[in-house]
Hints:
Strand content: 5-15%
Shape: elongated
Strand order of the largest sheet: 1-2-3-4-6-5
Number of domains: 2
Number of helices: 13
Mean pLDDT: 95
Distance between the termini: 63 Å
Low-confidence stretches: none
Protein name: TRPM8 channel-associated factor homolog
CATH topology of the largest domain: Neutral Protease, domain 2
Organism: Lepisosteus oculatus
Structural class: alpha/beta
Family: Belongs to the TCAF family.
Order of helices and strands: EHEEHEEEHHHHHHHHHHH
Helix content: 40-55%
Number of strands: 6
Amino acid sequence: MAPFFRLGESSVSQWRSSARHCPAPWAELEADSVILTVPSDSVCSLDDPTPLLSLWNRITKGVAKLAATAPRFPRQERIVADVQISAGWMHSGYPIMIHLKSVKEIADLQHMKEAGMWGPIHEMGHNQQRELWDIRPHTTEATCNLWSVYIHEEVLGIPRHKAHEELRPHTRKNRIKDYVRKGATLEHWHVWTALETYLQLQEGFGWKPYMQLFSDYQEMSGTGLDNKGKMNLWAERFSLQVKRNLAPFFRAWGWPIEEPLAAKLAALPAWEENPMSSYA
């Protein structure tokens, strides 16, 4: 028998008296949309898993809200901690895998609320990425972090500059300066630099345009677009959503905005607060 607790069904008194003391080396804690598989000794001192799993319910609902999907996942995510995993420090997929040293990021309530859990949410973000708007390889390790930022700020109450050191204001500013200095070419547009493009849009217009666009993209069939086509489609959709001409903004980032689209978007009001103007 393994330690097991299912939120809303398992008895807390039974967990305290017997379930958490079961001899199997791995335990499972189950919330509505996620199942955690962790070493038993990491949760055997937990008197009541309810607060932890309730937080996980808020997290997964937040993930779904940003992705514009149903609040309860159609299939529960699994996050499994193990001695050896197939790639990296953590990886996405089914299940999401993490090393044992990271168990506190998914099963230690105090640590999660105080220090955050960037890595696990980063991997959940990977599972939300979609071919139609993921500009590979540039944004593969970038747009997944939109979920990390959103969950830390909207659920955990941890601002982005504290959630990850790469998002400290001076670090961000220097990164953009360096990118522009190198010519603002897509050769250098990846990971944190690519994330900046999306963060500037979020800081200018909030999260709602993202939710609407992610919803709209779900209604599209496969377009067979290359990266240039994807960039132009995203620039058009985002501009129309916020009713601003974002062509100059995206061009400042080195996006290959085509002339017909630029002419179409020129009919919209200019984005006077374009943050890239200060780097010109």
